[in-house]
Structure formats: structure tokens, C-alpha cells
């Protein structure tokens, strides 16, 4: 596990990829975000998206899983302090393959507890064409080296 002290601003971590199926998209939407354009082809066709699209929450969860595999599971992550600047840039459709990249953008030692450091990381989710579909910043806490 990488400690706070081993991380450098500018470090990047690349994630693998995963493909969202129509069944996954409609199942997630049915459970957590039952908007018609996430559930039904016809409703999707009539929407501004021109077809069935994944919930933004599904896109976030999928890319967060990839970011966890690439970064959060490899560092001494103690938890998050929040998420900033969450943005959806383009819709995700059935059959889209997503990947994610994580970049360390800021770090400082905690003033109240010197055993941890605060690290901000930017997460970018992309489709197979390399187009950005989602971005956000995680405000994390990472254990310092002992």
C-alpha cells in the first residue's frame, strides 16, 4: 500500500475497462434512477439523448469502481472527505466501454492528526474513443508512513 508520503502531485493511475450492457443499464436505472430514457428505448428516442442512456449515477458508480481498482485500493486510503466538481460530459450508451484515470492534484498533512494526509485526486472516466464522459475530484484521507 502506498502511503501519503509516497504520493506526488502529478502521479497518475490508469484503470482497466468495463463495458455496460443494456441489461445492466436498465437494471440499475430501475433500482436507483427510474427515468424513462434510462429504462425504455422509445422514451430514449424521444428524449434529448436520441436513445437509451445510462444513468449518470450508474456512470459514476462504474467509473468509481475502476478508480478504486486503479488507485484507492493501492493506497492507505482512510476514507473520503467529500466529492467536488462532479460533471457529466457526455451520455453513456449500451455497449460503451469505460475506463478511468486518477491523478493526484493536491496534498497536505492534516493539522489535527499528523498520522494522515489530505489528498485531492481528479477522476476522469472515458469511453473507448477517449472522450471524457465524467469527471470529479475526491477529497481523500491517506495514512502517512510510520
Short description:
The chain is an alpha+beta fold and 146 residues long. It has 4 helices and 5 strands. The protein has a 5-stranded antiparallel β-sheet with strand order 1-3-4-5-2, with helices on one face.
What can you tell me about this protein's structure?
There is one protein chain. By secondary structure, the chain is an alpha+beta fold. It is 26% helix and 38% strand. It has helices spanning 22-32, 36-39, 41-46, 56-72; strands spanning 12-19, 77-88, 97-109, 116-126, 132-143. A hairpin with a 5-residue loop joins strand 4 and strand 5. The protein is elongated, with a radius of gyration of 17 Å. The two termini are 13 Å apart. The mean pLDDT is 96.
H/E element order: EHHHHEEEE
Strand count: 5
Structure annotation, total helices: 4
Please report the distance between the alpha carbons of the first and last residues: 13 Å
Widest β-sheet, arrangement of strands: 1-3-4-5-2
Uncertain segments? none
Rounded mean pLDDT score:
96
What is the helix content? Answer: 25-40%
Global geometry: elongated
Radius of gyration: 17 Å
Bin the strand percentage: 35-45%
Q: What profile does the largest beta sheet have?
A: 5 strands, antiparallel
Amino acid at each position: 500500500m502506498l502511503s501519503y508520503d509516497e504520493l506526488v502531485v502529478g502521479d497518475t493511475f490508469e484503470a482497466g475497462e468495463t463495458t455496460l450492457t443494456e441489461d445492466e443499464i436498465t437494471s440499475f436505472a430501475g433500482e436507483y434512477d427510474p427515468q424513462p430514457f434510462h429504462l425504455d428505448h422509445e422514451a430514449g428516442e424521444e428524449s434529448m439523448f436520441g436513445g437509451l442512456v445510462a444513468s449518470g449515477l450508474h456512470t459514476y458508480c462504474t467509473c468509481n469502481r475502476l478508480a478504486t481498482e486503479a488507485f484507492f485500493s493501492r493506497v492507505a486510503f482512510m476514507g473520503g472527505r467529500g466529492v467536488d466538481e462532479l460533471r457529466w460530459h457526455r451520455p453513456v450508451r449500451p455497449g460503451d466501454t469505460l475506463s478511468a484515470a486518477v491523478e493526484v492534484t493536491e496534498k497536505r498533512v492534516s493539522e489535527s492528526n499528523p498520522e494522515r494526509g489530505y489528498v485531492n485526486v481528479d477522476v476522469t472516466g472515458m469511453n473507448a474513443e477517449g472522450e471524457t464522459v465524467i469527471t470529479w475530484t475526491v477529497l481523500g484521507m491517506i495514512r502517512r508512513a510510520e
